[in-house]
Design a protein that fits this description.
Helix content: 55-70%
Number of helices: 15
Strand order of the largest sheet: 2-1-3-4
Shape: globular
Radius of gyration: 37 Å
Distance between the termini: 135 Å
Structural class: mainly alpha
Largest sheet: 4 strands, mixed
Order of helices and strands: HHEHEEEHHHHHHHHHHHH
Number of strands: 4
Length: about 375
């Protein structure tokens, strides 16, 4: 039978004692000499300089001057109808607001991606965390767990529903977007010039978007498996997913009762992509949800009111940080006044120095003499 290390310790100690008793005087002197040599070696080792401690790892984040415990969120730009065209980005921001975590959106104009090549990702205390599922898991362990009150069975159901939404329903929506990229731009009123921070005309940007997003996106959807089906079959897939969610929600305010959980964040982030499309653009899934799943429409509006009271401000001004307090109007006026004073000082610096009046009269007389001499020359 195998024994543990702790069980072997007493046995080793007793065996050592028995060996010491049976030793001869010669053996004892030899052992004493060996002990001296070992002690000398230990002393030499102690005299050797200790190795330098390794330098702390460098902070490899974009936000070098970060504030402690503030979540810096990197996501897509705003649109006039939706805070984010990515359900994963909207999921993370919705969760942050529900958890009352202090966060700030970084306006990076889509220049940055995580080390995994994804959006969204966050930076927290000099550490990058990528993938929306991992982000929520890490933040739940460090801060607030929205699912703390759920039973094991409820957590399992939530896991299955989230998998259905993100690995099936999301691809139904993605198929529609890649199939009709022009409808995406029109349906969400996307301004690519603002989103990309580009000076190119929107006409050129829209052309490249339709070509790149439509072509590359279609390949991804086909590789995932959704793209091999007919439009009618894909539409039916989406309707079946909506029906399952509607049946599970029933007449409850949220999926597991009176308080929203992570499942509500995921469902809202994905259903919002379907519901908040311009009415001028026809979309079968939105029409099905509105007609056959009114409780899902109610869920979307409840989550919107609870998590995004600044929704109109977000969509009107396309402000990534409308949730952060703005400086008072008096401070902004003072700053503007200070700027005007600085500009006035600069103008004064550019103005010529004041001249002495006597010098000015002398200069005028010299000019008059020059003009008279020039006239005499002309007459001659």
């Amino acid at each position: 039978m195998a024994t543990t290390e702790e069980n072997n310790v007493p046995v080793a100690q007793t065996e050592t004692k028995e060996m010491i008793k049976e030793e001869s005087p010669a053996a004892a002197t030899e052992k004493a000499e060996e002990a001296k040599l070992e002690a000398g070696g230990d002393a030499q080792q102690q005299q050797q300089p200790t190795a330098k401690e390794p330098a702390p790892p460098k902070v490899l984040v974009h936000k070098a001057n970060f504030e402690k415990d503030v979540v810096y969120l990197y996501q897509f730009s705003r649109t006039p109808l939706l805070p984010s065209l990515s359900p994963y980005c909207l999921k993370v921001e919705t969760w942050l607001r529900l958890a009352n975590m202090k966060y700030e959106n970084v306006d990076h104009k889509l220049k940055f991606r995580s080390k995994k090549g994804q959006l969204p990702f966050i930076e927290l205390n000099g550490e990058e965390i990528a993938d929306s599922a991992i982000i929520l898991k890490e933040l739940s362990q460090r801060n607030v767990d929205l699912d703390a009150a759920l039973t094991t069975e409820q957590r399992n159901v939530a896991h299955a529903m989230i998998s259905m939404i993100e690995n099936h329903l999301n691809w139904v929506v993605m198929w529609w977007r890649t199939k009709y990229p022009d409808q995406v731009l029109k349906g969400y009123k996307v301004n690519l010039q603002h989103a990309l921070g580009s000076r190119l005309p929107n006409g050129i940007l829209n052309f490249f978007f339709k070509f790149a997003f439509g072509r590359k996106g279609a390949k991804k959807v086909k590789a995932q498996g959704m793209g091999v089906h007919s439009p009618e079959e894909i539409s039916k897939f989406g309707q079946d997913d909506l029906k399952v969610l509607s049946d599970m929600l029933a007449d409850k305010p949220f999926f597991f009762g009176d308080e929203p959980t992570t499942l509500d964040c995921v469902a809202f982030a994905n259903l919002a992509q379907i519901y908040f499309i311009d009415k001028e653009v026809s979309y079968t899934l939105r029409e099905y949800m509105t007609e056959h799943c009114p409780n899902l429409v109610g869920l979307v509006n409840r989550m919107k009111e609870r998590c995004f009271p600044d929704w109109d401000d977000i969509c009107t001004n396309l402000d990534l940080n409308s949730h952060l307090p703005k400086p008072p109007a008096e401070e902004t006026k003072e700053k503007e006044g200070n700027n005007d004073e600085k500009e006035g000082d600069k103008d004064k610096e550019l103005e010529p120095e004041d001249k002495d009046p006597e010098k000015e009269k002398a200069d005028e007389k010299e000019k008059e003499k020059d003009t008279e001499e020039n006239k005499e020359k002309d007459t001659k």
